Amino acid sequence: MLQQARQVLKQYFGYDSFRIGQEQVIQNVLEGRDTLCVMPTGGGKSVCYQIPSLCSDGTTIVISPLISLMKDQVDILRSNGIPAAFINSSLTYSQIDQTMEDVRNGLTKLLYIAPERLENESFCKELSQLNVPFVAIDEAHCISQWGHDFRPSYRIISNLVSLWNKKPTLIALTATATPSVIDDICSLLAIDEEDVYITGFSRENLSFKVLVGVDKDKYVKKYIQSYPNETGIIYAATRKSVESVYEMLLKSGVRVAKYHAGMTETERTKEQNRFLNDEVQIIVATNAFGMGINKTNVRFVIHYQMPRNMESYYQEAGRAGRDGLPSECILLYSSVDEQTQRFLIDQSLDRSRIPFELKKLQTMVDYCHTQHCLQAYIVEYFGEQVSQECGQCGNCTDERPKTDVTEETQKVLSCVVRMGQKFGKTITADVLAGARNKKVVDFKHLSTYGILKPMSSKEVSRFIEFLIAEKLLSVKPGQYPTIYVSEKGKEVLIGDRKVLRRLSEEPKVVIKDDPLFEHLRALRKQIADRESVPPFVVFSDKTLRDMCEKKPIDEESFLDVSGVGQNKLERYGEVFIEAIREFVS
Question: Where are the transmembrane segments (predicted)?
């Protein structure tokens, strides 16, 4: 059987050998054993049911959750000479009738359908008349109530096999499944533990990075300018954010498309096709775009805002580098992102899932503040043990020195204890920073009040988030989450454990004898004298240093200089730009 499978792989797909895990899964399926395949995005899951289908008589039924994903798969199969079709809401009744006629006549090897289609009794009756050797369930995590993308319609699938006198072999496939989700899938589909194949969650060609508190618009613009010929996806949490980033890039001259649920289906299809056909460089999208993209040459994925859970993040980030080439996954985090996601979770129709979703959200917040290997953090979340760091993520390559923050940590932990371990990080940060707002009046008597001055409440809050990520503080989830000292944190309190943290800023480099800086400083002095103001009122030294670094020679790039706003552009832009042009020419 495997010899035939290899021949089919070469004939239709043009590969000489299978990827890791594919051969074992295919053999198991061809032996008629119901199988669960957990394989990372880009690992080649679809081949695991397509090859068995081509090695057998009849039509394989593929259950897929998204119209766009079905179309991508069918287009690829047809281009490889494989007869495939789909049935979903994008087709007319006559098109559906014709598709089913082709299936009945044995002209279709793979038929893709949406799970909701199984709610139609007459359609199920038609399926029962077909010769169906296999039923493939794509994005199988949707079947689990513990999954991040649970769909009640997927529960119907467990009854599907009863349609046929001879039971088809089931193959469930997913890229994002925690141990609890895997157990749930196996229980619902009656898949034995020995028929579960997990090839690992690590994507060695991806490098992960988290940036906290950066100017997101400036970063995105600069990053894209650095890679003008590379394709990328920018994910945002809300429609409003998608529109904002889209307009910002459009005005910057970037070839960009957008995708969100507020657009019509026709508009979304048009924009997605522009991206797939390389008519644009970038697409800005909400998570509605997550599972529906099969483009292989995406070189980077930027999350403009933090997603609500790790499954969504890894699935979306995994759109990068599907061709196996080195690609980047960058998450831009700010504390507002957490508030945005809490609001979106609170709007959930199923109130019973809110505590569960909030717990997942906290895992994402922890990811954004950990100083350990990011790839390892992700892989361990999905239940896989890691023996070594990836060596290429933003944390592994961060060369900033670490400083001992054990004393500061003890102060925070002590404050949490003295506040009864029943308050959130915001009010705790206010107490530690010695804030004077009304909320902390009742805590002014504590010995820990103001103990972390002169840090601001915002800085203390970030430090608390770091301690949560380091598992020294734990979070009790809920509408108003509270923090408490963990067992690991207690070891710090009694002096049995040290805490190290990377410096919050890059080490400052002293620039000496920069002739351009001296040139600009002299110009600044002339202007200041003429206007009878101190030189720093015109521009600070920091702004001049940034001018020396960026060397702006037009108004748009001059606005990118730190400390330059529209007003100063209008007042001083022309003269400074001219000075820089003369100097660099």
Answer: none
Residue among 314, 343, 311 at smallest CA distance from 331 = 314
Q: What is the 3-state secondary structure (H, E, C) of 519-581?
A: HHHHHHHHHHHHHCCCHHHHCCHHHHHHHHHHCCCCHHHHHCCCCCCHHHHHHHHHHHHHHHH
Which residues have C-beta within 8 Å of that of residue 362, sequence separation ≥ 6? 468, 475, 477, 481
Same domain, 437 and 559: no
Kindly state whether residues 464 and 523 are assigned to the same domain.
no
DSSP for 179-211 reads HHHHHHHHHHHT--GGGEEE--S--TTEEEEEE
Nearest to 129 by CA among 158, 101, 159: 101
Mean pLDDT of the chain: 87
User: Would residue 18 count as lying in a domain?
Assistant: yes
Q: Identify the CA nearest to 564 among candidates 261, 328, 218.
A: 218
The predicted-structure confidence for 385-423, as pLDDT tens digits, reads as follows 888 899 999 999 988 888 899 999 999 999 999 999 989
H or E stretch covering 331: strand 327-333
| Number of domains the chain contains | 4
Of 198, 220, 255, the position where a domain reaches its end is 198
Q: Is residue 388 part of a domain?
A: no
Which residues make beta-bridge pairs with 172? Answer: 36, 137
Same domain, 274 and 407: no
Note whether residue 80 is domain-resident: yes
pLDDT score of 195: 96
